[in-house]
Amino acid sequence: MGLKKILDNLKPTFSEGGKLSAFGSLYDAMETFFYVPNETAKVRGAHIHDAIDSKRTIFFVVIALIPSILFGMYNIGLQHYDKIGEESTLLCCFLYGLAVILPKIVVSYAVGLGIEVAIAQWKKEEVHEGFFVTGILIPLIVPVNCPLWIIALATAFAVVFAKEVFGGTGMNVFNPALVTRAFLFFAYPTMMSGDKVWVNGNYMDCINGAPVDGVSAATPLGQLAAGEPVTASPMETIIGTIPGSIGETSVIAILIGAFILIWANIASWKIILSTFAGGALMAYLLPYEGAQNFEWWEQLTVGGFCFGAVFMATDPVTSPRTEGGKWIFGFLIGAMAIIIRVLNPGYPEGMMLAILLMNIFAPLFDYCFVQSNINKRAKRAAK
Amino acid sequence: MSLFSKENGEVFMGPLNLNNPVTVQVLGICSALAVTSQLKPAIVMGLSVTAITAFSNVIISLIRKTIPNRIRIIVQLVVVAALVTIVSNILKAYVYDVSVQLSVYVGLIITNCILMGRLEAFAMQNGPWESFLDGIGNGLGYAAILVIVGFVRELLGFGTILGFQVIPECAYVENGGLYINNGMMTMPAMALIIVACVIWVHRAYNKNIE
Q1: How many CA atoms lie within 13 A of A164 on its CB side?
Q2: Among A55, A198, B164, B186, which residue has the least CB neighbours within 10 Å?
Q3: With the C-alpha atoms ordered A214, A215, A219, A222, is the resulting torsion angle positive or negative?
């Protein structure tokens, strides 16, 4: 129990009046991160007591993301060595990917948590844990070549304007990770789409990688939007060995995460299922015009569709609370994503915009379902 | 009452700070979004609104006692429309490129809520000199916010100020640097966020604003 002792010894320094009281909220966050907090909800009132608090919930989401992160690392290396035409080992691909993704994760956590801690200290509140998921999601939904300062800027923007101005964790209307991506997408379109951003060309002395400049590799959605035939086979898009945002290429890795989330009862299976249903229906009804060797169901395997459905749409804060609302919410996300993809040539990927749009409507769905329930019961009571 | 009495000073200074039409009354937001992607149109727009507000205030104030109450809005509109037409033609004559950039928004000054608000709330009850000060004050208060928003948007969105390159060319990615212009700044949505930030700062300094 060495760590516990250290934390307990440090407590007076960080509490009110102590030397380092300015960092009190940071200490608090670390203490509750390592150990279950001592405070429990007050016994009066109608609180539901549960062993899982939001810190543990969020930890499960991070665990569910691990398969995607690992595959993303491997895929970064694979795409790189594939493009420069060199043989490489599995380990080498991993290491290359790790070296590329690690700075992004560090930057996103440092900027986001820095702002959260500063604001919590300023408002004399405790730091909330919501950013642990956002911070790991951000590096996974950007292209490999996204510069770090841009990620830092977008993270700061999202944390301040999508989260803190609404009141912090649990109060936000939009998913902060998606707002980060939306900011990047609209502010720096050349860094977020096109065919130059998906493969890292930097020199890395793993075996003997050669530097390459401006490697071009189009994503399946990029090819579809440009009206070119898709080069990736369905097998490749499902396993994930295609160019794309870091964490979103592999359907298999994402599905493993989905099972973890559903098993732990954290993500709503209704939202995931209805998103796929909406996407499948719309993809069937609305095929790409003149797309060669591209079946309608492949729409669900390319781009950020799976990743969005499993990790973004199911965010408990920005999705509806009512069960009926969840079905509609998911279905409309899936349908909107495909509509934007197919009908709007300016946006090859519609998942981000679809989820953000539906985030606005989530409270409305809840309101309608709660009201209809109230009306139903009022009628029953009147009888 | 002297021309520069304390009351008149307040009439003039109020809209610049504690009673700013944009940041406190949240009026005229629509044009603040539309014309501020660059600094030059923002300045021209601000000055146009200032001139029109001031002179329409004076005219309405002069004839306020003869306007029948039931048709006062139409009378006000006619005065404003005449002034907007004059300003629009002056802009076309002297700064044609800016006038093209501003496009319909010069004409839409007619519907600017700040203008109608000042006519109804101030010029209909006060003398011409006070009304003139009030119009200038409100116009400049509006112009000040437009200039701030336009400055930030042009600097970050285009890397220029009034058309001059401020951020060095060598800093850009195309020339081997790191910097890229923020495309979001050129979109109207960002103007709303900048106005919100200005309001945030303004209220942080003036805690007594409701």
Answers
A1: 22
A2: B164
A3: positive
Q: One-letter amino acid identity for A192? A: M
**AA identity, residue A321:** R
| Minimum Cα–Cα distance from B178: chain A residue | A147
Q: Judge whether A158 is closer than 8 Å to chain B, CB to CB.
A: no
Q: Residue B145: phi, psi to the nearest 5?
A: -65, -40
Helix (H) / strand (E) containing B182: none
Contact flag A190-B178 (C-beta cutoff 8 Å):
no
Q: Which residues of A touch B185 (CB under 8 A)?
A: 187
User: For chain B, what is the radius of gyration of the CA atoms?
Assistant: 19
Name A184's Cβ contacts closer than 8 Å, sequence gap at least 6: A142, A146, A150, A151, A154, A191, A192
Per-residue b or e along A25-41, where b marks 16 or more CB atoms closer than 10 Å to that residue's CB: bbbbbbbbeeeeeeeee
Instruction: Please state the length of chain B.
Output: 210
Contact flag A188-B178 (C-beta cutoff 8 Å): no
Distances from the Cα of A293 to the Cαs of A225, A230, A341, B20, in angstroms? 14, 7, 17, 61
What is this structure's pTM? 0.85
**pLDDT (0 to 100) of residue A261:** 92
Cβ <8 Å between A188 and B187: no
Note the Cα A45 to chain centre separation in Å.
35
Asked whether A191 and B181 are in contact (CB, 8 A), the reply is no
Residues (pLDDT < 50) of chain A are 205-209
